[in-house]
Structures are given as structure tokens and as C-alpha cells.
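Quick check before the chapter quiz. The format below is the same one you will see on the exam, so make sure you can read both the input and the output lines.
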Amino acid sequence: MSAWLRIRPLPAAILALALAGMGISAYLTSQHFADRPPICGGLGSCATVQQSEYSEMAGIPVALLGLGAYAFIAVLVVARDRWPLADTGLLAASFVGVLYSVYLTWVELAILHAVCLWCAASAVVITLIAGLALLLVLRPQPVPAGYEYAEM
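Here is the expected output.
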């Protein structure tokens, strides 16, 4: 059976959220490079946030950094069976993402006095990923077949 068909529900949910985050980030990145404001539907100030000095870090659009982070998380989910530290990497990457999202949300509210709904959606996605990654790390691990406990 293909590895894609054997993915468990928790990692599958993380992968689905990572793909959603990639979609959000890809849209915001495309709008950044096209120098067009994101569609906000009159429910926020996406253009204000996108045109601010905080929309880039060292000349790189924050949305592009988010795209890379979500892609990295997706790769870690797919690599879980081959790399023992993938779950820890998922947890670390997602918590860094949450911390950065908290900072960016603070910038939006306290400095820019504007809210980007796309950014808020991305913050929710990374927070959900972090919560699921924490569950993944904390859940009891199955004992490998053929493994015997040593008597003490």
C-alpha cells in the first residue's frame, strides 16, 4: 500500500492545514510581487498591512517566508516514517510560526491599527498545526513489533 494511503488522521490533518497555509501564503506572495492589494472583502485592512514596512523581513516578503514554513511542515509530515525527529521538528517549526504570528498580530493591532483577514487566517492555521503537533508528540507511541521489555 502506498505511503500516501497509510497516513494517520492526526498527521493527515496537519498536512491538510499545511496545504491550506501554503495556499494562503502563495496568494499573499503573488499579490505582493504583483504589487496588488489582497482581496479583503471590506472586512479588514489587508492593503495597509501588505504595504507596511512589516510586510518584509530583510527584503523577503513575510508571506513568502510563511510559504516556506508551511512547505517545510508538509515535508516533515510526509517524512515522519523515515525521520525519527520529524514530529519534534513539526512541533518546533509550528511553535516558531505561532510566536511569529503573535508578533505580527500585535504589529497589526498595536502599530498599524489594521487587520489583514488573510494574515489572521494564517495565524489560526499555524496555531491549529501547533496544537495538533503537540498532540502528536505527547500521544503514547506504539511498541514496535517484536520488541520485548527487559526485566529489571
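If your answer matched, good. The chain has one domain: 8-138.
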